[in-house]
Write a structure and sequence with these properties.
Shape: elongated
Order of helices and strands: HEHHEHHEEEHEEEEEEEEEEHHEEH
Helix content: 10-25%
Strand order of the largest sheet: 2-16-17-1-4-5-7-10
Radius of gyration: 25 Å
Strand content: 25-35%
Structural class: alpha+beta
Number of helices: 9
Length: about 375
Amino acid sequence: MCKKLFLLLTLCFAALHISAQQIEYKTFVYTNDELANAISKLNDERDTSRGYLGDIFSATTNSMKGLASGYVTSFFDLGVNAIGALVTKRSRMKKEWEEAIKKENVYQTAINSVSELSDFYDDTSFDGAMDPKGMRFDGIGCLRMEGNDTMFYISCHINRDKLYRIINHSKFELVLDTLILSPKHSNLPNNTELHIPYSFEERKNFALKMDITITSSWMNEIVQLQKNQELGTFTINIPVDEKLLDANGFLRYVRHEGETSKYHVMGECFIVPRSYMGYRDEKDNFKDCWGTGEYKLTVNIKESCDVTDQYRANWKADYKRRKEMAKKNHEMGIVEQSWQVISNQKWDEITQSWVITTLKAPASYMSKDLIDKLGLE
């Protein structure tokens, strides 16, 4: 009876541990057919002699439809941050503790589009590679949930107050519209073996940094390939003040229409160059044409914090507690291992957005149930 009870408790503990270590992000690339009309209107105001372009800008096609099929990739992450250092390293206890805490206080992850994202513009152009006609890309969002609860959400759209930069400089800027963030529900402390919850008594100065980079490859009219060129990077830094959190420990922010965002998005990006694709008309005359623009997306998320003076002063007791927890985990067979990351990319016809899903879990627990969460076969 005792053995059965111990086994049950072991399995329950393992299940809780693994559940806590599953990390899933969904990244959204928004599109908006009305954006092209806004750019067209601004262009007409700047140069009335080109007003006829308004009709062309407002014309939309179904070039995005039929792209529901997704792309899938997976890889192993062998750079695991192990608390095992506290058990195996033969160095002074204080140094061991400080090194473990330093690693715990930083969590980083990279989310990449699996393949090129199609159609920055809704139609081809006959005017040139940097023609903004029909631009429909409208921003980027990122979501992390646990069950039905939102643990993290950020949403940025093209800054409508600076559309003139698209007309004048072929560049766009983003503005942060929505933010949901909670230190207690973050990936900190970043510990792969011990389940240590975030505590304001132990941690301070929580901050989120997010870097968004857009790259593209295209062919120009003299048949020169421009491959994986960086078009721009956006950076968002969000320090979290404990006093601004609600009763559930969340920072929630929504930018109201017309107001300046509380959290600045630094950086700018060129619009995606169209790839040259000449064609022959019905009279067999060869003419110049440029495509709808393909691009790739990389999102780097970094969570960081520091330890409180009280926690650092009490390092000896914490070191002992960690040693005991690590020993228990190894006795139960929960040991350090590599992680597997699986990414899936699909076009969502309902929301008119690309959705990139990234799931990270211990490799031995990347089961069919977990993979099914990505909607894969």
